[in-house]
Design goal:
Length: 252
């Protein structure tokens, strides 16, 4: 959802909000106010309130802070008359399709970052490859590296991994937002910029954790945050060859 208005609330939060019209609550016309709260380098939170269309915009019902916009919009759907599924450009019926889009977008995001930041050549793997998503090539020495990319909207999630034909797992979390100041028509405005936490974990750690517990526990340790030096070292060290070996993996 596009949030059209933003302001600072003291030193901590930047609040972006959107008022949506065309709904009713217990038989009376109302507006739905949706807000996003962005703190520096922390995940966004969302809230919503149903407001009367009077001079005071009286609050009739409200939703507590949630980490997911969809959770807030589902609350609104369950409380508004007629259980609407359309909230401006966001349609709750398309949530599954949006998840697939974000999973694919995560691969493109990581590919673009590696190409722009380090000058590596990155290709998207065929969908038939069960265990890695990106093939990274160092054009200087032709060494290759396989990356499995996962996008997660839950910042505490575990992962199920059964095949280890990759060199590094790259976990991309949902964005948080920082704000830049711009001059527009002589007035200073704030514009949100999406930032992503990326966790880069080597295969040995992933495999060991999965063998011990049957799944990968939450790997969000500070050592792995934006840990691209591991990948760069893997692709540039003279005494290393690719550790990615072909294995008999079932297709996903």
């Amino acid at each position: 959802m596009i949030f059209t208005h933003s302001y600072r609330d003291g030193k901590h939060w930047t609040i972006s909000h959107r008022e949506l019209d065309g709904y009713s609550y217990k038989g009376q016309p109302v507006e739905l106010w949706v807000s996003r709260y962005s703190d520096y380098r922390s995940y966004d939170e969302y809230s919503a309130s149903i407001r009367a269309k009077d001079s005071d915009c009286t609050e009739l019902a409200s939703c507590d802070f949630k980490r997911s916009l969809y959770t807030v919009l589902n609350w609104a759907r369950n409380n508004l008359d007629g259980k609407p599924h359309q909230f401006s450009e966001t349609d709750l019926r398309h949530k599954k399709a949006l998840s697939s889009i974000k999973g694919e977008a995560a691969e493109h995001y990581i590919a673009g970052y590696l190409m722009m930041e380090f000058g590596f050549i990155v290709s998207l793997a065929s969908p038939s490859m069960p265990s890695y998503d990106l093939l990274v090539v160092n054009p200087i020495n032709n060494k290759t590296c396989k990356l499995q990319v996962k996008f997660r909207s839950n910042s505490n999630s575990t992962l199920s991994i059964s095949c280890f034909d990759f060199d590094f797992l790259v976990l991309l979390d949902k964005p948080y937002h920082e704000y830049v100041k711009v001059k527009l028509d002589g007035e200073e405005k704030s514009r949100p910029v999406a930032k992503f936490n990326v966790w880069v974990v080597n295969k040995e750690w992933v495999k060991g954790d999965c063998e011990a517990f049957g799944y990968l526990r939450n790997p969000r340790y500070s050592d792995y945050l934006h840990n691209w030096e591991q990948v760069v070292s893997f692709l540039t060290s003279a005494n290393k060859s690719s550790q990615g070996t072909q294995q008999n993996c079932p297709h996903a």
